[in-house]
Amino acid sequence: MLHLTTGRVGCLLSKQAVVALTGSGARMSSHGHHEVSDSVDMSQPMYWDRLDTPLPDRPWKDVLDSTDKSLKQKEKGPWTALSKEEKIALYRLKFNHTYPEMKRPSHEWKTVIGGMFIFFGITGLVVFWQGHYVYPPQPHTFGEEWQAKQIQRMLDMRINPIEGFSAQWDYKNKQWK
Amino acid sequence: MFRAVVRLSTSGVRSLARIRPCYSAPLASRCCSHAKVETDEEFDARWVTYFSKPDIDAWELKEGMNTLIGYDLVPEPKILDSALRACRRLNDLASAIRILEAVKDKSGPHKDIYPYLIQELQPTLIELGISTPEDLGMDKL
């Protein structure tokens, strides 16, 4: 027996099919077999809802009750004799989702963005706590007085006098240009 | 979105052309490969013949339809007509409706292709008693 967990199914098929399989195929709501776990029996024909593969290997409902069976019998006759409800019922016997249902938008993006912001928030808290409890005190060279003396020294040394630092200082008027 | 809809390159509703791998002139001297290029008519004829098989079975219908939908084109009405008749021989209305849904999806952003197909298939749909997804209200969520 070939059993495939739904996790591994994800690697083989597109995300759409995985959703379809996990939603329907794996649980096999109307299938005769008794599926205990979430694994899919890969040795049996599978059902899928895929936009690019319209006809799956098996119909959605395998196990037909008597009303279904009589409807299937009626299907063998002229289809003009079928009512709209019967045609819809026949479709739903064979297929789970219609194309619009397959293409329906999900609310997954809200979960994704929300989760993103939660993690940003947690990271922010970690960074803040770190800044408070982990970082050592700042070196003394960062102080206001020291910085002022440092800048004055740099100007005295004429650091980058042509295009850079000292070029911005107006030596005549003793101010920045 | 993770839709796997294939982008379509149609040059108009009537022509329903598809990407050609090479020049159409068979005597073009700078062809990409030396394989014989199948014309649109040959392609259509091949598929019409495929679905016209009198004793076609469910597997062949399924296989043919899935392959056809896998191509980068919307099938011509005559191919779809042949496929719908195959569904009739197999007493499979659901698949017939599914085929109509599939070709509507294949048209992608070109919203004028599907109404054209339905218009062309109308005699067949009436004859066989196939309702479109719109008739059954299945084109809405």
From TrEMBL, chain A:
GO CC annotations, alphabetized: mitochondrial inner membrane; respiratory chain complex IV
UniProt topology in membrane: Single-pass membrane protein
Major site of localization recorded for this protein: mitochondrion
Spans traversing the lipid bilayer: 112-131
Pathway: Energy metabolism; oxidative phosphorylation
BP term (GO), one: mitochondrial electron transport, cytochrome c to oxygen
Key words, A-Z: Membrane, Mitochondrion, Mitochondrion inner membrane, Transmembrane, Transmembrane helix
Pfam families recorded: COX4
Top-level division of the source organism's lineage: Eukaryota
Location(s) in or outside the cell: Mitochondrion inner membrane
Function: Component of the cytochrome c oxidase, the last enzyme in the mitochondrial electron transport chain which drives oxidative phosphorylation.
Quaternary structure annotation from Swiss-Prot or TrEMBL: Component of the cytochrome c oxidase (complex IV, CIV), a multisubunit enzyme composed of 14 subunits. The complex is composed of a catalytic core of 3 subunits MT-CO1, MT-CO2 and MT-CO3, encoded in the mitochondrial DNA, and 11 supernumerary subunits COX4I, COX5A, COX5B, COX6A, COX6B, COX6C, COX7A, COX7B, COX7C, COX8 and NDUFA4, which are encoded in the nuclear genome.
Stated family: Belongs to the cytochrome c oxidase IV family.
Protein name, as recorded: Cytochrome c oxidase subunit 4
Organism from which the protein derives: Oncorhynchus mykiss
TrEMBL record, chain B:
Topological relation to the membrane, as annotated: Peripheral membrane protein
InterPro entries: Cyt_c_oxidase_su5A/6 (IPR003204), Cyt_c_oxidase_su5A/6_sf (IPR036545)
UniProt entry tagged with the keyword Metal-binding: yes
Main function: Component of the cytochrome c oxidase, the last enzyme in the mitochondrial electron transport chain which drives oxidative phosphorylation. The respiratory chain contains 3 multisubunit complexes succinate dehydrogenase (complex II, CII), ubiquinol-cytochrome c oxidoreductase (cytochrome b-c1 complex, complex III, CIII) and cytochrome c oxidase (complex IV, CIV), that cooperate to transfer electrons derived from NADH and succinate to molecular oxygen, creating an electrochemical gradient over the inner membrane that drives transmembrane transport and the ATP synthase.
Alphabetized GO MF terms: metal ion binding
Protein name: Cytochrome c oxidase subunit 5A, mitochondrial
Listed CDD domains: Cyt_c_Oxidase_Va
Pathway: Energy metabolism; oxidative phosphorylation
Subcellular location: Mitochondrion inner membrane
GO biological process: mitochondrial electron transport, cytochrome c to oxygen
Family: Belongs to the cytochrome c oxidase subunit 5A family.
Gene Ontology cellular-component terms listed: mitochondrial inner membrane; respiratory chain complex IV
Keyword annotations of the record: Acetylation, Heme, Iron, Membrane, Metal-binding, Mitochondrion, Mitochondrion inner membrane, Phosphoprotein, Transit peptide, Ubl conjugation
Protein's gene: COX5A
Record's subunit section: Component of the cytochrome c oxidase (complex IV, CIV), a multisubunit enzyme composed of a catalytic core of 3 subunits and several supernumerary subunits. The complex exists as a monomer or a dimer and forms supercomplexes (SCs) in the inner mitochondrial membrane with ubiquinol-cytochrome c oxidoreductase (cytochrome b-c1 complex, complex III, CIII).
Pfam families tied to this protein: COX5A (PF02284)
